[in-house]
Amino acid sequence: MAEDNWNPQDLITKSHEAKECSYSPYSKFRVGAALLTADGSVFTGCNVENACTALGICAEKTAISKAVSEGHRDFKAIAVASDMVESYISPCGGCRQFMREFGLEWDVYLSKPDGTFMKMTVEELLPESFGPNNMERKKAVPLH
Ligand SMILES: O=c1ccn([C@H]2C[C@H](O)[C@@H](CO)O2)c(=O)[nH]1
Ligand SMILES: [Zn+2]
């Protein structure tokens, strides 16, 4: 996906494709995510549940962790997909905080299976948030 020339619909399609890998035998609620980084890479994720149900991980967290663990911290957008046709999938509070760690001014596309979406910034999803700037004495080690 080219850096300055990307189509939200492509990212949304990738999030629905990622949903196909959802491991959700307990909730039967499939979620997929596709995260676009500043250099044009896309990292996808799905929710991964567990018999110890509290240990499940959301699709958004999976995608963000994949990207960060491969050296990406600069994000442009994340698309999120579920099977709900009546309402847009809405990231849980934990995922909103997870997104916020990497900035407030990037976009979240909340989608439906027909490809329609609602676009919100991370800041709109999590106003008045607590973030890395509130932890100035614990600066992250820079990548390069
Ligand atoms: O935005 C969301 C909302 C829910 N879930 C997952 C968590 C759990 O596996 C299932 C039901 O909550 O959906 C996500 O992955 N992302
Ligand atoms: Zn979540």
Automatic annotation (TrEMBL):
It holds the Pfam family dCMP_cyt_deam_1. Gene3D superfamilies: Cytidine Deaminase, domain 2 (3.40.140.10). PROSITE patterns: CYT_DCMP_DEAMINASES_1, CYT_DCMP_DEAMINASES_2. One of its GO terms (cellular component) is cytosol. Zn(2+) binds at residues 58, 92, 95. Its EC number is 3.5.4.5. Belongs to the cytidine and deoxycytidylate deaminase family. This enzyme scavenges exogenous and endogenous cytidine and 2'-deoxycytidine for UMP synthesis. This is Cytidine deaminase.
